[in-house]
User: Fold this.
Amino acid sequence: MTGTDNSPSPAALAARAARATASPPDPADHPVAGQVDDLLGQVEQIRIELDGAFQLAAVARQADLLTSAHDALVTALDEVGRG
Assistant:
C-alpha cells in the first residue's frame, strides 16, 4: 500500500524492515525434513542390520529409500520455486 505521493506507507516500510531483519527460518522446521530424516534412518538401519554383508535386495531397498528422499527434497524445492 502506498501513501498519496506514491511512497510506501509506514506499515509497508515496517513490514519490509521486519522481513529484512528477521532470522532465516530453520530448514529443520520444514515438514519435509522429518520425512527425509526418517527415510535416511531406514537406510542406516538396513546398513547396520547387514553388518558389512552384501545383499542385493537390501541394496535395492536402500536405493528405493534414497530415491524417495531425493524426490521429497526436489518436490519441496519446486514448491518454493528453487527447483
About this structure: The radius of gyration is 22 Å. The CA atoms of residues 43 and 63 lie 8 Å apart.
